[in-house]
Amino acid sequence: MSAYATDVATLARKDVLLELRSRDTLPAMLLFVVSALVVFHFALPADASDRAEIGLFWIALVFTALLGLTRAFAAEREQGLLDGLVLAPVDRSAIWAAKAISVVVFLALAEAVALPAYALFFQPVGWELVAAVVLADVGIASIGALLAAMAAASRSRELLLPLLFLPLAIPAVIGGVGASVAENPASFLGFLALYDAVFAILAWASFEYVVTE
Amino acid sequence: MIRGREIEKRFGDKRVLRGLDFDVPEGGFLLVTGPNGAGKTTLLRLLAGLAAPNAGELEVAVERAHVGFLAHEPLVYRELTALENLDLYGRLYRVPERRERTGMLLERFGLWEARNERAGTYSQGMLQRLALCRTFLHDPALLLLDEPFAALDDQGADLLQDELAGGRTVVVAAHDPARLATLATARLALA
């Protein structure tokens, strides 16, 4: 394993261990996504379209991700720890990559509950939806980890993160809904893969400037 | 090893450092003194590369891997144990024989018995000792220390004083410089 991959693995393992110890983020994400789906189930009429149901599912996922991202840099922010990581002789983008991986892990765990809940309340889950969710997770975590780091450095972080993140999550929702309802989901899945690639490269290249003055 | 000329640092309209000139040769010991708000911490952050001066020339001829930085905050995760924190930093700094080095420092700074306790349960003095273990973990060539004696008891302060006499290049910011007066080779008084 390369030095870069070792650093990313070390930092991601730390983030997962912190969550296992503190249990701050994942229970909140699980509770939110299940609650949202229950509310949508009772709010939608019985003859609601597939598009409406899948659209609300994606809205629940995006806000669940936002909840996780809000806490992504909480330990570093509250204890001034970003300085410690930035000073370490590792490529600073490794900090971003590790954070994005931990966000993907938490999102995947939330979705492991959300997808069966969606199947229970609305309609069966097809492979297209699962593939779209996996692809969207990567893009959402990539750009979300960068924006969470930016927001962590700001006093108005609670306001800044949703303002920055939600507009950039719109393509993920469009791709996710499209892949689930379109005749040919491949084009929407390709769109999501492109979204992942563009935002991952953008975040990887710019993270260093976000965490240094 | 360190050369600063006409260093200036501003935060918005507030000028924190103005026209600072200093040199620290290899093995030198610069003691930075001054009242609260004089810019001691800001100067250390500039030297660590955590911030950039607005004007002037600053050269620090040491790679990031060889800098040990002790900040106001201990820079350790409160949810992790002392061992886990030092293991994390040891991996990131690629410390050879990480476990042996970690054990030696924890014993030296009197934290061995508490090594498996979460840092969040430590007293301020223990946190400062853990922060010192983190700072010395990779055997840095350049030490940047911000109020290193804060919260340390006499025994801890004596241990630190012994470590500082080890011939490294050191820049220390301190309110009360009495303990460091004999070690300092140069002084920089900030107003």
Structure explained in plain terms:
The complex is a heterodimer of chains A (213) and B (191). Chain A is mostly helical. Chain A has one domain. Chain A contains 9 helices and no strands. Chain A has helices spanning 3-22, 26-43, 50-70, 74-78, 82-87, 93-121, 127-152, 157-181, 186-211. The mean pLDDT of chain A is 94. Chain B is an alpha/beta fold and 191 residues long. Chain B has a domain at 2-62 and 141-189: P-loop containing nucleotide triphosphate hydrolases (Rossmann fold), CATH 3.40.50. Chain B contains 5 helices and 8 strands; from the N terminus they run βββαββαααβαββ. Chain B has a 5-stranded parallel β-sheet, with helices on both faces. In chain B, α2 (82-92) crosses α3. The A-B interface holds A 3, 6-7, 10-11, 14, 17-18, 21-22, 75, 79-81, 83-90, 212-213 and B 48-52, 63-65, 67, 69, 71-80, 84, 88-89, 91-94, 118, 134.
Proportion in β-strands of chain A: under 5%
Rg value of chain A? 17 Å
Please give the CATH class of the domain at 2-62 and 141-189 in chain B. Answer: Alpha Beta
User: From N to C, what is the helix and strand string of chain A?
Assistant: HHHHHHHHH
Q: Helix fraction of chain B?
A: 25-40%
Quote the average pLDDT of chain B: 93
Oligomer state of the chains in this structure: heterodimer
CATH superfamily of the domain at 2-62 and 141-189 in chain B: P-loop containing nucleotide triphosphate hydrolases
Spell the H/E element sequence of chain B. Answer: EEEHEEHHHEHEE
Largest sheet of chain B: 5 strands, parallel
Write the layout of secondary structure elements.
The complex is a heterodimer of chains A (213) and B (191).
Chain A: H1 3-22, H2 26-43, H3 50-70, H4 74-78, H5 82-87, H6 93-121, H7 127-152, H8 157-181, H9 186-211
Helix pairs in contact in A: 1-6, 2-3, 2-6, 3-6, 3-7, 3-8, 6-7, 6-9, 7-8, 7-9, 8-9
Chain B: E1 2-11, E2 14-24, E3 29-33, H1 40-48, E4 55-60, E5 67-70, H2 82-92, H3 98-108, H4 124-136, E6 142-146, H5 154-164, E7 169-173, E8 186-189
Parallel strand pairs in B: 3-7, 3-8, 5-6, 6-7
Antiparallel strand pairs in B: 1-2, 1-4
Helix pairs in contact in B: 2-3
